[in-house]
Each structure stands twice: as structure tokens, then as C-alpha cells.
Amino acid sequence: MLILMSLLLIAMVHHGRFSPVVSYDKRVRYEEYTIEHEISATQAKNAALTIDLSSVRLTHGCQSCSNEELRYCAGTDLINDHCCCDKRFSESLPFIPHTCYSGTVLCKPIVEDCEEYYRRKACCCDKFSLQFWKKKWMEKSTQNSSSNQFNINLLLLYIYFLIYFL
């Protein structure tokens, strides 16, 4: 039986079914990306908590924003378009943690074009996304301080029991 299995395995390798040669598609090109800029969570939190909402001014000629535009402002599409359209000119979203990459392939914005991104950003996203992230960072700070208070109380209770039972 062992001889039969060995012959079967040799026949399969010989006919190319289990070839050790790895084939790949030579037409596939691999793109190498470099980090253009990056905002860490700590940097974003510090920026969000220090920027005053009243300092953000709406551009003249802006209409009210639709729900779809506000979803765009709160989602990852805004960051994608920021990385595609802003390109080292200035960091206009310092309160959102993100990393932008650059490569040789031209990117395409999620909205129609970069002009639409600039319009949405100025009319809808600047104030809304700052408000959104400021609230998010404040909630995380509150959760961390309440969990720290819980840990302190737990530690005090542990010390009390050690003293009482020793």
C-alpha cells in the first residue's frame, strides 16, 4: 500500500500537478508607497481639544449641508479625499488621526473631483468634523478618567482587605 501511494505521489509530481515552481503573473505591477504625512491619535486629540469651534468660519455662499454630505464628513471618505487633494499644502485636518501615502499612481477623489472636495470641506466638514472629533475625544477622556477612578477604588478596597485580614 505504501509503495502504491509513493508511486502515485511521484506520478503526480512528474506530471506537474504538485510542481514546486511558483508561477506569477508578469503583467501585475506592484506599487510602492511612502508616507507623505501622518497625524497620530495623541496629536489629533491634542489638536481637537485645543482648537476653538468659534474660530472655524463658514465660507461665503455655502448652502445647508445634506445628510449625505455630513456622513461624508464623519467617515473615511473625507480623509481619502484629503490625502488625494491636499498633498502637503497644509494640514487642514489635524484633529483626525490619519496617515496619507504618496505613490506614482494618481489618486482619484471619492467625490467628483478635488474642487467638490474643497467645497464640501469648507462648507460642511470643517466645523462638523471638528465638532464630531472633539466630542469623540472628550467622551474617551471621560471614560478613561472614570475607569481610572474605578481602578483606584479597587486598589483601596484591596489594601483595606489586606490590612483587615492580616
TrEMBL record:
Family annotation (InterPro entries): CCC (IPR058250)
Keywords: Signal
Domain CCC: 35-135
Signal peptide coordinates: 1-18
The protein, known as: CCC domain-containing protein
Top-level taxon of the source organism: Eukaryota
Keyword Signal on entry: yes
Pfam families per the UniProt record, alphabetical: CCC
Source organism of this protein record: Henosepilachna vigintioctopunctata
